[in-house]
Structures are given as structure tokens and as C-alpha cells.
Amino acid sequence: MKLKHVTLLLLISLSFKPFNSWSQGFLKAKGTQIVNQKGENVLLRGIGLGGWMLQEGYMLRVNGQGQQHKIRAGIESLIGAQKTQEFYDAWLENHTTKADIDSLKAWGFNSVRLPMHFNLYTLPVDKEPVAGQNTWLEKGFAMTDSLLAWCKANKMYLILDLHAAPGGQGNDLNISDRDGSKPSLWESEPDRLKTVALWKKLAERYQDEPFIGAYDILNEPNYGFEDPENDKNGLKEQNNVPLKQLLQDITKAIREVDSRHIIIIEGNGWGNNYNGMLPPWDKNMVLSFHKYWNLNDTKSIQHILDFRQKYNVPVWLGETGENSNVWFMEAIRLFEKNNIGWSWWPLKKLGSNNPLEIRSNEKYMRVINYISGKGSAPASDMAYEGLMEVARGANIHNNIIHRDVIDAMIRQPFSDKTLPFKNNTINNTGTLEAVDYDLGANRAAYFDTDTANYRINNPKWVGGNRGRVYRNDGMDIVADSAKADSYYVTDFATGEWLKYTINMTLKGKYTLSFIAAPGKAPGKLAVTIDGKPVGKVTVVPAKGNMSGEWQTYNLQNIALRNGRQTLRLFAEAGGFDLKAIRFEKSPVP
Length: 589
What we know:
Elements: H1 2-13, E1 28-30, E2 33-35, E3 45-48, H2 68-95, H3 98-107, E4 111-117, H4 138-153, E5 157-164, H5 173-176, H6 189-206, E6 212-216, H7 241-255, E7 262-266, H8 268-271, E8 285-291, H9 298-311, E9 315-321, H10 325-337, E10 341-345, E11 348-349, E12 356-357, H11 362-371, H12 380-393, E13 400-401, H13 403-410, E14 425-426, E15 429-433, E16 446-447, E17 477-479, E18 487-492, E19 497-504, E20 508-517, E21 523-529, E22 532-539, E23 551-560, E24 563-573, E25 576-585
Parallel strand pairs: 3-4, 3-10, 4-5, 5-6, 6-7, 7-8, 8-9, 9-10, 11-12, 14-19
Antiparallel strand pairs: 1-2, 12-13, 15-25, 16-19, 17-18, 18-25, 19-24, 20-23, 20-25, 21-22, 21-24
Helix pairs in contact: 2-12, 6-7, 10-13, 11-12
GO molecular function, one term: beta-glucosidase activity
Keywords: Glycosidase, Hydrolase, Signal
Pfam family, one: CBM_6
């Protein structure tokens, strides 16, 4: 208990000053704004709890068909039904806790989006004991109650999102855990009736809760009604009649018991195709859109701005993320400039481009390789150990905290100032890891020529940190295979640079040793201290050495004062790797 308390204090100590976002009664739509009970504009800054109630394959590093029911079946084939249930119980218990919500508040978020899987709230239609009736399960409601209590304690809004509807709402099977061998939501009236009934049940339960910010009634519909063969995901759908009808039926059911909560609707084609669906049919409605991998310019959101203006209705960015810090900062600047609230995706997964990362392990990866068809079945005991380690690792106290991601979302959109990534204090001697350059935006803390993934506009643009480890900036970082938990900057390209804030405890003359691995062509590194050039080193293989081998390149007699100062490394000729900078004070004559 004491350890957990200390860990939570650590999480909060890493935080940035939160925005003022005290709840003031029920949120509601007023013209083009979302406002509180006092009529004040509320800009939602939130994050989605993807992977908690609904596991998508990529979040667990499963390749191919990553529907949760298939992942579960694969696990069950290895360890049996009882131990599989133990894994899922441990996963649900650890993934999202009060400490997660406390930390989100401390970091500066004011809302949370809960992606719900219907099967935690009610039975599938084909498993109902009596056809046409609804069996309600306490598990999902209890989890939602706990999450709501944690949000209320932090004065944060909770947005309920039906992420996996009965039958599945699209042909992107993973996002709704859809079983493609069974009728979809759109092909099954019993599934649609159950969806409507679920929302009425939720509205009955939470009708008097002002910290429920809104009901996001159907996540990312993606279904071709008119041309299912050539438009499977509904991107070109012109009328969206079945989608509009279901959303209207859900709205009617909610309003029979709850007149106060905002209802959020999403278009077809993963949330953006509103053809035939507007104008809104409810006075307290918000239009959602989702945005991934395109440019962060006004053109990219013009369609939703036009809807807002034409129909005098608020809009909300319900889901975005899965990119680099540069993209995050650009996007948030764009949204907030246009008074659009946002919810990032996701808080955590087995991957680094989110605030929290769940650690993997070798035994777990044996399970995943088997499920993905890339390896043989591991022994049952080994599989169980690896799975339970990941389930425990999903707890925030065991997560890797990516401060650079949090900084890019909360501080960098509004400040060009840089901050030290670590306390780089140097005494007589010391080592500065190359990957620990300052926190801040591209062109402020570092400069990289390939910073983000804009692939919808140009499929060849695959940018950001291509190593996908340690940090989520533009710089390419990879793990050192020779040493655990060790990383280095790779492919330090011509024109790129890195800035470090260092604190010297003793003034004097120092030798700076750069640990670098030469590329195929000679590289050159220029060094400045507080903007003043102090020397250059040429990065070429030494006699008898090969390119790609770590070597040491020295700059001697570099005068450093005591106190804080700035070291900048500029690649005049790039193509090499950089691991560390060592400082050694020269003896006084």
C-alpha cells in the first residue's frame, strides 16, 4: 500500500499545471458551443480508455484478425477456460484504476471517454435464455459506476461511448469485436433492439449524474448500405438511412427517461460521413468526427466546421492519436484555435505513442506469436505466466510513463519553451544519453526532417520515431541490443540537431567524448554551448574498424561555467548513430 502511494506521488510530480475545468452542472449544447450550467464555454480535453473493456488486436500486438473474441479463443486453447477468465478478470481490474484518473487530472485532462463493450452489460442475442428479452449483467454497470466515482472525485466529465454494439456496427471487425460469421447490427433487428434497450438502461441509471458529460451512442459506424461490395465501410454512402434510423431510435429511448444529457452522434465511414443524416433531430446534440494521419490544417476539418455553422450545432473530436508528438501538438493547436474539444486515443497499450505504455514480456510474446500464426504453441504454464504478467503490468503503477507525450498534448501546443527531459547534472565526470534531449517542440528542443505520419495525404509519408521506442518525437530512436533498457539516436541526418539543458556543478575545462557509430559516408557533428561554437568532430571509422561500430570522438579543453547551460549538437553531415556524450573535467595544472 505504501509503495502504491509513493508511485502515485511520482505520477503527480511529473504533471503539468492542470487547466481549470471544474464541473458546473450538466453539459449542454448551446448554439455552436458546449456549455456548463452557468452558460460558460467548456472545451473538453480528454482521453479514451481504449483496450480496457474492449481489446483491439493491435493494442496487444496481435497481427491480422485481432477481434477480442478470437484473441480470447486463442488464449483459451492454450490455458483453458478457467485460467483465461483469470487473465481477463486481472486485466479488467488493473487496466484502469482510480490512480489512472487521478493522474489524468494532475496532468491537465478534464474528461474521459469510456469505450464500452456491450457484453459486459448484457448477453448477446443468441445467448439470451428467452429470445427477445434482455439479461442485464452487473459487471459492466459496476465498472462504469466505479469510473464515474473516480471522475467525480476529480471533477472530470465521463463520456459513455458504445464501442462494441450487439452484432457489430461495421466491416472493420476489430474495433467492435464483431464476429463476421454472424449477422451484423444492420442485418439483425434483435441486435438493434438490444442496442436501443441498452442505451435506455444506461440513461435510466445515470439520468441524474451531471459528471456524465454525454452519451456517444455509436462509435465509428463503417458499413456500406447501398453498395456493400465496393464500399464496405460506407465512405461513399449517400443516404445512410439505416444508420440515421437507429440513432433516432436510440435518441427517442434515451429521451423517454433522460432529458438533460448531451447525445453525441457519429457519421458513417468511421465517424465522418454525415450524408443524409442532418440536420440534427435533438436540441441537445453534438456532432462527433474522428481524425487520423492527415494534415493538421483548416482544410482537414473544414467539413465539420461547415456542419457546425450550417446547423448551429457544437462539434467534438471524439477520437484521434496514434501518431507522433509533432502531430499531436499540431492537431491540438488546430482544434483549440477553432474551439473544438477533443478526446485522444488511447491512454495506454503495448506501444509507446500514448501517455502510458504496458510492458510486454518474452512469454507473453510467445502467446501472441501463436495467436497471430507466427509461432508454435507455448507450454500452458509458460503462456499463463506471460499473460498474467501483462495483466499485472497493465496497472498504472507498472506502466512506462511517456512524459514527452503528455508534454506534447498539454504544454507544447501553447508554449515554445523547452524543459529538461532529465536532471542532467554533471560533476567532475558524467554521461549524457543522446536520447535525453530536452522536452519541447520540433525546432525548439530538436530538429528532425521526418516528424509525423500524414499518410492519408501521401502514402509514402511514414514519419516520426521509426524505432517506436523510448520517445514519440520526430527523432529516430532504437533499442541497444547489447544492453537492456538502453537506447540511441539512429540515422542522425544532415541538418538535424539536438538540444540538451545541462547543469554543471564545477566550472573548468572538460573533455567531451561523443560515442557514435559511423555510417557509410563521413559524418560531421558541430557543437555549441549557449549558442557559441566550441568545436566539431568528424565521425568516420577508425583504422581497422567498420562503419556501424561504436567509437569515441573527443573535443578537448571545452570551457564550461558552473550552473545551467545549453548544449546543442548539429549534424553538418549526417547518417551516423549517436549514443552518448561523456564529460570529464581536466585536472587543474
